Amino acid sequence: MTRILLISGSTRDGSTNTAALRTIAAVAPPSVRTELYAGLRELPAFVPGADPAEYPAVSALRAELAAADAVLICTPEYAGTLPGSIKNLLDWTVGTADLYEKPTAWLTVAVPGRGGGAEATLSTVLGYVGAQIVESACTRLPVLGADVGDDGLVGSAEFRSGARQVLAALVAHTPGE
Ligand SMILES: Cc1cc2nc3c(=O)[nH]c(=O)nc-3n(C[C@H](O)[C@H](O)[C@H](O)COP(=O)(O)O)c2cc1C
């Protein structure tokens, strides 16, 4: 069993990024257990040197990261880079072993020509914290709002096929595989 933590960089209700991750969870094979991180809105602003024990939301994040064999991030781009909320999450992992050597990839759902700034920042920050970036799993699968059904999932066969390939590439780089 491979455990993959799915982290959306959007705090928006109706987010296409969160819908993409929800769909990835839905198509995951029985050998993959996914967890969709739900704490981004509640995560406090990073405080350098803070004792995580004083921040239950940070302790919960660290526990979810520790339990994960791999991490998949799906985030929008804001103002040419990452949304502050997910950069804040990543800041909490600086100087910890939370993401160190953790197989990590990102899925970009922005349309072609968009989202490159967010990807570049992810590459920089994940490199800085020592995550093992799984290049073969870093993928672009565009999702528009209209692609998300009433069930909150992306229905297209093309997206779902790509999503399965993302999972397979990530699983192939987890310890024991
Ligand atoms: C504050 C803000 C800034 C944005 N800046 C960019 C940007 O620099 N580049 C870009 O391609 N899209 C930008 N967008 C568009 C979002 O990336 C796009 O709406 C995305 O679908 C939002 O993801 P979500 O549906 O998961 O919330 C911006 C959106 C907002 C709200």
TrEMBL record:
<feature type="domain" description="NADPH-dependent FMN reductase-like">
    <location>
        <begin position="2"/>
        <end position="136"/>
    </location>
</feature>
<dbReference type="InterPro" id="IPR005025">
    <property type="entry name" value="FMN_Rdtase-like_dom"/>
</dbReference>
<protein>
    <submittedName>
        <fullName>NAD(P)H-dependent FMN reductase</fullName>
    </submittedName>
</protein>
<dbReference type="GO" id="GO:0010181">
    <property type="term" value="F:FMN binding"/>
</dbReference>
<dbReference type="Pfam" id="PF03358">
    <property type="entry name" value="FMN_red"/>
</dbReference>
<dbReference type="GO" id="GO:0016491">
    <property type="term" value="F:oxidoreductase activity"/>
</dbReference>
<dbReference type="InterPro" id="IPR029039">
    <property type="entry name" value="Flavoprotein-like_sf"/>
</dbReference>
<dbReference type="GO" id="GO:0005829">
    <property type="term" value="C:cytosol"/>
</dbReference>
<dbReference type="InterPro" id="IPR050712">
    <property type="entry name" value="NAD(P)H-dep_reductase"/>
</dbReference>
